[in-house]
Amino acid sequence: MNRIRVVAADGIGRITLARPEKKNALDRAAADELLDAFAHYASDRSVHVVLLEADGPDFCAGADLAALAGLVDADAATQYDDAMALGKVFIAMRELPVPVVAAVRGRALAGGAGLATACDIVLADDGARFGYPEVKVGFVPAMVMTMLRRAVGEKHAADLVLTGRIVNAEEAERIGLVSRVVPAATFDDEVHAALEQISRSPTTALALTKWLFYKLDSLSFDDGIAAGVVTNVEARSTEDFKKGVRKFTERRSRPE
Fold first, then answer.
1. Residue environment code for 132-159, b if the CB has 16+ CB neighbours within 10 A, otherwise e
2. Is 134 a catalytic residue?
3. Distances from the Cα of 168 to the Cαs of 85, 106, 133, 211, in angstroms?
4. pLDDT one-digit tens code per residue, 173-205
5. Which CATH architecture has domain 4-199?
6. CATH of range 203-253; options 1.10.12, 1.10.150, 1.25.40, 1.10.260
7. Residue 111: Cβ within 10 Å count
8. 21, 33, 95, 134: which is the annotated catalytic residue?
């Protein structure tokens, strides 16, 4: 792989965007490599959580404009195939049965902001910046709007995509684009602590929780409760749940 690095250890899978000289811009090769990495982790039962991070001072500047320039005169089928490559990455991230955590330093712009937003949890250092400036160059933040509207709501999303303005980490957290803002001085330690906390949970519980969390997008209130009941019962049937309950009750029954 030339665009990313993939390493796993101690229940944590890492995907690192590794083109700092290009501000980790996304081209077709990067999209294909990301898709392969997420597919790999989807079948690796030893991995409980995946971290998406980046080399260099910036997380990701978005689409590689030089690569897009090379497609200016391509036919519609070629354009569709190129766009769908990144779309498949977003779908794979959503379907991955374990959480994906973004660790964002510096700028996450356009498709880079979308890549962060597609993660389940976004941890940003206090110097991070986010934005969807595509309209300024005659482009559209098309696929990423699906995640953005769900993350921040209609009015905040419209403000971001129609003005193309850049927001700092504090505002990104306030509107729901970021899960937590972490001081730069302790960023690595706090990211690692969050990953370790998630990695200690059973994969069956993580998978069922993530599946239901996003399934609720398409359900009415009553249907959501019904799906919750079914998922609750399914969780009770897992060996991880049974072991967890036994361990808890045994601990509670021990004399002090």
1. bbbeeeebebebbbbbbeebbeeebbee
2. yes
3. 29, 10, 14, 31
4. 999 999 999 999 999 999 999 999 999 999 999
5. Alpha-Beta Complex (3.90)
6. 1.10.12
7. 28
8. 134
